[in-house]
Amino acid sequence: MLNEKEITSISKFLSLVLRHKPETIGLQLSENGWADVEELIAKINAHTFKITKAILNEVVVSNLLGLVPRSSALPLVLSLCSE
């Protein structure tokens, strides 16, 4: 389990890469702005952080829980955790 500082650092880096500068890690987004999760993880690992799919899920869930009421997020959290 990550601490709050680690979650924040990874979250900020993901925002940079996925919203503004995918070229930072050599990531090519689809024409609709999507990224392949396995490619994203591999390129992040080669560039800076060492993350896994479980860590990525933890960061995403942590961010979602901060944005929506917990009762609304529960179905989404359960579906993410079951992947």
Automatic annotation (TrEMBL):
| Protein name as catalogued | RNA 2'-phosphotransferase
Q: Which ranges of the sequence are coiled-coil?
A: none
**Matching Pfam families:** PTS_2-RNA
Per the UniProt record, the source organism is Ilyomonas limi
The lineage's top-level taxon is Bacteria
Question: Which InterPro entries does the annotation name?
Answer: Ptrans_KptA/Tpt1, RNA_2'-PTrans_N
Record-linked Gene3D superfamilies = RNA 2'-phosphotransferase, Tpt1/KptA family, N-terminal domain
Molecular functions (GO terms): transferase activity
